[in-house]
């Protein structure tokens, strides 16, 4: 089962062919670079589906009923991915009217969509209801009242979850840590405000409080974070039942499972993690003498990260005597801002020199006018790496395309999907005309 542990490459879908070229999902990446030009995001549809099934099967086994995983689409949002999610029976988590529209236009049934965000505007609320969003995940009082008002205006009852902060520190980057009391997200148990908003929600005539949501952070590997959060949440469900007589139907445990970016990252066995979580939920419900609610989780990164790779063409290889080597590529922080934002790790290869030794230490840098425009520091690549070579950056399927910008007026790369050994664009490359299309003469 653990073939992953024996693969010499960072992801399971990566290999080397007879010509010494890097392959992804069985295709030669240097050929893909030729056909689709660079920079380009390459995605492996089979891997996306595999990752979905790990979740859907574990959910069936450990929770059953209506319990289900949602795909957190902020990780990578484009029409085709919603088609995959529909076929895989995944719910979705959306965070803006833009994501809602994208899913809707892709033919996704929004009844299975959960609308997050710590600040939904009146326009967002109205737009989401207009398109028939299943659930709002409500972050704070003002939003609760705004949803009540809009639902009343429309003469409907709106299903909601409340985003509760359980006070768990997942020990990851501060920037992606969201489960503690002092956070812009959610409403804390510790301060008593969570009790207050529940009491309020139960009073509102056009609000159907379905349950609670929590999300402790992202890129989480730490042992028992989800179990601890589950214990806090289940006890809290019992507390509210005793105090207010209200029993939830759903408990949404958020997303956040970590993926491997570099060799030193551990392998996380999602099936086992879900089994452990289920165990914690079942035992705590038993202890508290409450029924097990419908369980929801919303993974993003662990669905798409290792299904993606970015291909670049090398420009200059600057060798500064006694200092560093800089390998410049034809993209950068505009298509992958994660090193600039969080110092995120990535594994890089020179795709056309896979049989050569990685005997040069270098920084792989982008083409933007910004010293911080770095893809990765201290990368070992072959010393003959030169202009025209192809550099592949692995595990870029999550939070790359969706975080892309137009800094320096650089167009966004296409998304090339590999399906059954064939590659095609599912998002085309942005043109300069696209970039100028909003300017008014
Ligand atoms: C970002 C986010 C997720 C997904 O997190 P991953 O680390 O990508 O799995 C899920 N739920 C909420 C509320 C989020 O903000």
Describe the structure.
Strand 14 and strand 15 (325-329) form a beta hairpin. The chain folds into two domains: 3-44 and 307-436, Lyase, Ornithine Decarboxylase, Chain A, domain 1, CATH 2.40.37; 116-299, TIM Barrel (Alpha-Beta Barrel), CATH 3.20.20.10. Mean pLDDT is 94; it is low at 1-5. It is built from twelve helices and 21 strands. Strands 4, 14, 15, 16, 17, 18, 19, 20 and 21 form a nine-stranded mixed beta sheet that branches. Strands 5-6-7-8-9-11-12-13 form an eight-stranded parallel beta barrel, surrounded by six helices. It has helices at 29-36, 45-62, 79-87, 97-105, 122-130, 141-154, 193-203, 225-244, 270-288, 301-304, 338-342, 432-436; strands at 14-16, 22-24, 27-28, 40-44, 68-72, 91-94, 113-115, 135-138, 158-165, 187-188, 207-213, 250-252, 294-297, 308-319, 325-329, 348-350, 360-365, 374-381, 390-394, 415-419, 422-427. By secondary structure, it is of the alpha/beta class.
Bound molecules: pyridoxal-5'-phosphate
What is the subunit arrangement here?
single chain
How many distinct beta strands?
Answer: 21
- Range of strand content: 15-25%
Overall shape: it is: globular
Structure class: alpha/beta
Task: Evaluate the radius of gyration.
Answer: 23 Å
Number of domains: 2
Largest sheet: 9 strands, mixed
Question: What is the CATH architecture annotation of the largest domain?
Answer: Alpha-Beta Barrel
Q: Which runs of at least 5 residues are low in confidence (pLDDT < 50)?
A: 1-5
Q: For the record, what CATH class of the largest domain applies?
A: Alpha Beta
CATH topology of the largest domain: TIM Barrel
Classify the helix fraction into a percent range: 25-40%
In whole angstroms, the N-to-C terminal distance is 60 Å
Count of DSSP H/I helices: 12
The CATH homologous superfamily of the largest domain is termed Alanine racemase
Average of pLDDT: 94
């Amino acid at each position: 089962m653990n073939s992953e542990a024996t693969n010499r490459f960072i992801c399971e879908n990566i290999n080397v062919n007879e010509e010494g070229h890097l392959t992804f999902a069985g295709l030669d990446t240097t050929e893909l670079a030729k056909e689709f030009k660079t920079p380009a995001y390459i995605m492996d549809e089979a891997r996306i589906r595999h990752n979905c099934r790990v979740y859907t099967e574990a959910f069936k086994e450990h929770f059953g009923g209506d319990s289900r995983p949602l795909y957190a689409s902020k990780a990578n949002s484009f029409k085709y991915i919603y088609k995959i999610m529909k076929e895989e029976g995944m719910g979705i988590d959306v965070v803006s009217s833009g994501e809602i529209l994208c899913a809707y236009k892709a033919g996704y049934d929004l009844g299975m969509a959960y609308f997050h965000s710590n600040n939904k505007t009146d326009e967002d609320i109205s737009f989401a209801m207009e398109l028939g969003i299943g659930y709002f995940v409500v972050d704070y009082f003002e939003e609760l009242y705004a949803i009540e008002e809009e639902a009343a205006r429309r003469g409907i009852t709106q299903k909601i979850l409340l985003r509760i902060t359980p006070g768990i520190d997942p020990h990851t980057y501060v920037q992606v840590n969201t489960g503690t009391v002092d956070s812009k997200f959610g409403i804390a148990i510790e301060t008593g405000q969570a009790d207050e908003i529940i009491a309020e929600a139960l009073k509102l005539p056009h609000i159907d409080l379905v349950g609670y949501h929590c999300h402790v952070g992202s890129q989480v590997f730490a042992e028992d974070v989800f179990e601890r959060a589950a214990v806090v949440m289940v006890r809290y469900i019992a507390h509210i039942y005793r105090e207010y007589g209200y029993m939830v139907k759903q408990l949404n445990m958020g997303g956040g499972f970590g993926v491997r970016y570099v060799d030193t990252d551990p392998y996380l066995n999602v099936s086992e993690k879900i089994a452990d979580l289920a165990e914690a939920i079942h035992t705590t419900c038993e202890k508290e003498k409450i029924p097990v609610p419908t369980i929801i989780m919303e993974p993003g990164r662990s669905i798409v990260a290792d299904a993606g790779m970015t291909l670049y063409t090398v420009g200059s290889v600057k060798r500064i005597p006694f200092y560093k080597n800089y390998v410049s590529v034809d993209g950068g922080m505009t298509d992958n801002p994660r090193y600039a934002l969080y110092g995120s790790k990535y594994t890089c290869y020179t795709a056309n020199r896979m049989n050569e030794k990685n005997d040069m230490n270098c920084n792989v840098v982008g083409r933007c006018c910004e010293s911080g425009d770095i893809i990765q520091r201290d990368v070992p690549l072959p010393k003959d790496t030169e202009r025209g070579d192809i550099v592949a950056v692995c595990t870029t399927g999550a939070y790359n395309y969706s975080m892309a910008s137009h800094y320096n007026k650089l167009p966004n790369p296409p998304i090339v999907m590999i399906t059954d050994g064939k590659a095609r664009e599912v998002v085309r490359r942005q043109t300069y005309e696209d970039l100028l299309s909003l300017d008014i003469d």
